[in-house]
Amino acid sequence: QVKGDRLWDSLMEMAKIGATEKGGNCRLAASDLDKEGRDLFVRWCREAGCTVTVDKIGNIFARRPGKDNSLPPVMTGSHLDTQPTGGRFDGVYGVLAGLEVVRTLNDAGIETVAPVEVAVWTNEEGSRFSPAMMGSGVFADVFALEDIQAKQDVDGKTLGAELRRIGYEGAEPVGKPVKAYFEAHIEQGPILEAEEKTIGVVTGAQGQRWYEVTVVGQEAHAGPTPMARRRDALVGAARMVQAVNRIGLENQPNACATVGFLQVSPNSRNVIPGRVFFTIDFRHPQDEVLTKMDRELRDACSLIAVESGLEVEVEEFWYFPPTPFDEKCVAAVREGTKLYGYEHMNIVSGAGHDAVYMAKVAPTGMIFVPCEDGISHNEVENADPKDLEAGCNVLLHAMLERAQG
Amino acid sequence: QVKGDRLWDSLMEMAKIGATEKGGNCRLAASDLDKEGRDLFVRWCREAGCTVTVDKIGNIFARRPGKDNSLPPVMTGSHLDTQPTGGRFDGVYGVLAGLEVVRTLNDAGIETVAPVEVAVWTNEEGSRFSPAMMGSGVFADVFALEDIQAKQDVDGKTLGAELRRIGYEGAEPVGKPVKAYFEAHIEQGPILEAEEKTIGVVTGAQGQRWYEVTVVGQEAHAGPTPMARRRDALVGAARMVQAVNRIGLENQPNACATVGFLQVSPNSRNVIPGRVFFTIDFRHPQDEVLTKMDRELRDACSLIAVESGLEVEVEEFWYFPPTPFDEKCVAAVREGTKLYGYEHMNIVSGAGHDAVYMAKVAPTGMIFVPCEDGISHNEVENADPKDLEAGCNVLLHAMLERAQG
Ligand SMILES: NC(=O)NCCC(=O)O
Ligand SMILES: NC(=O)NCCC(=O)O
């Protein structure tokens, strides 16, 4: 049994770093505040008797030795970075639940057979540097280290240089054998709350396609340029935003379609926009539907561009297919919920998680707990301490099961 | 007769300051480059024997004395600031045409009765600091000096502080009597070119209404938040951008409607936008139609907000009614074109100009010359040296007529 209060106190302590006025968190990847959060985690892990290593992409591993340290570790973890207007639980919960498992094993004097590790993955959010899940992506060999080190934020700073600056470009090579990987996370959606379940047994994650779209028209004066002569990139982009939304609505149930980022150029009040850049985020649990949505998007954008005398470029920027998790790991999670008598249900993750990339290189499972109103990526993100404790108990059980076998 | 070559050379010399790669100019109001442009103008004016004064909002006046210096001056001028991706002629032409008039009077040894002044108005473009036509607006008592000094750019810097920094917060009080005001400008629209006229005799300017709109929805995760539960501020704003465009199209002939500036928050690829801020620029030669467009805008935005579960605030930010110019000044311009035998036509200005505010405090007229493809507020903005010379000759005639009477 984990200590729910201790877990909660650690969460609230971490939430002070990058706290926002509205009660949320802003700890962008590889920023000064990310460094502070990492430092606190490392200190806590050392106090709990772990050895800490950092790899070249800034992933942190806190290791609690087992009886047989030649075995690969049973690993858990998540991320400490947040959205610009993020919450106190997204990612942080999975990291500190891992720490609470270590503390509980210490309290009970349990020595596992395989070692246990808690991982902090670099830049899971994909907000400051895009795409998301970078640290685990390099770990799982989905991305090349050099490519990811070279990714730039909007100010042109690279992730590699920023990690070096905050002292988290480690010496270790990226990637190593892992016996099993578990990740606890808030659901970030409304389903568990609506169904009144404490635990979501995550069977897999839906697929994602991210795009970058550039629309080019012609800048001209907003006053003396007659409507009929305009090639207004923003009017075209606005139709495309509508089209993205419609594609989401027409592929129900389960499709999601979002334009989260949009920039107008030159962005001057009395200039007809000459260029708009925006991003698209498509998600679906079935790959065929994602492919269909892709076709619908390209058709819609081409049609709008032709009708409006604009040029458009639609570039696929990131893709991963729907990812089923490991049967045994999913079963270990389900057993844990039954053991403690928690209400539970199967669920597919709507978000990408480090677990999605870990599933490529290790047997993987995830544990979801409800979050208030299903809201995350928002400063008001909230979760019930009892649910967080329950998820952590299930994590403890699943990890123990795998670390003893 | 003015010297077209000398005028062109001065224009090209000025265009080196803040030159952009695509052959345009970026000299934002009260920036270092604006200072460089102002310094060059001041040097040229002193070399032409003028005395230079600067008022508290940074307007520059270069004075060529007359026989009776107790008379108010006959004034011409325009602005040296540009759009972020602006051209080489918008504003600059009117300033340097004024300088060319002074140089021509010097060459011919003409002493006018009233003194002649060339004005450079601060921040006409309204891009870095909004709204537009600030220097002439304070001069004409439309805006209070303190309000305009306190206007901020996107980085929070105030116009007052920036003028002080570049050494152009002058000592003179803002505003003084003016006998007549003329302004030469490129048309910034396609009409003169299409009608093959050299000179547009500007009879007045259309009215403008500028708005600031804020749309508020709810930030949430782009992955696990079902389409049906979303309150996506950008999807709503995109419909409003469409509505603005439709209102422009439905109020033809002559209406213009533009969203030039739009900002998404938090602007993160995997976050449903919680807030969008954008601006609207409505124009029409008839005030009743502007009022009708205002009603249509408010109705459309309210309806979209209600249908989408969003909140919207539509704030009128700037307004001036259609402005007819002074009959005698317009006649002086028309006479000049006839004298030189230039093809000409009456025209209403689609853009706001410093002349619009000057018309409140002095008899005012404007002279338009064609610009290539009607394009301005664009780096490719271009004009024919012969047309620029013609406009300057008409300006010379009109100013002389008023300065001798
Ligand atoms: N959990 C989470 O917010 N992950 C970021 C990647 C995504 O948008 O799915
Ligand atoms: N001439 C010009 O570009 N003026 C700026 C104000 C406006 O947008 O009309």
TrEMBL record, chains A, B:
Pfam families: M20_dimer (PF07687), Peptidase_M20 (PF01546). The keyword Coiled coil does not apply. The keyword Hydrolase applies. Residues 204-302 form the Peptidase M20 dimerisation domain. Binds 2 Zn(2+) ions per subunit. Coiled coil: none annotated. Zn(2+) 2 binds at D90, E125, H377. Transmembrane segments: none annotated. Zn(2+) 1 binds at H79, D90, H185. It comes from the Bacteria. Belongs to the peptidase M20 family. PANTHER family: ALLANTOATE AMIDOHYDROLASE (PTHR32494:SF5), ALLANTOATE DEIMINASE-RELATED (PTHR32494). This is Zn-dependent hydrolase. It comes from Oceanibaculum pacificum.
